Amino acid sequence: MGLVLQSQDSALKHKLFLTKDDYETCHIQIDGTQEKLPAIALGSNLYSFFKTIKDRDKALDILGKLYDNGNDAAITQTPKAYAIWILEEEASRLN
What is the CATH number of the domain that holds 29? Predict the structure, then answer.
């Protein structure tokens, strides 16, 4: 499950919580680096892993702060925590 803020494909834009079927895991490389980063793909958008938070309200607070700072971000639920992902506009998908 996940919460998406800011621009997404219109079908995803209005969903509060995403299901696993809405995104896929992958790895990306940010332009200008050689580092391979864990990521999720939401439509044509690539999001790099930012951090995990156990508390739902804290995770949503961090997501809100990222949004307020102009970042497009998403949150997914793992069995023990919430994972926060940040849009990487200059990324290339590796797998």
Answer: 3.30.200
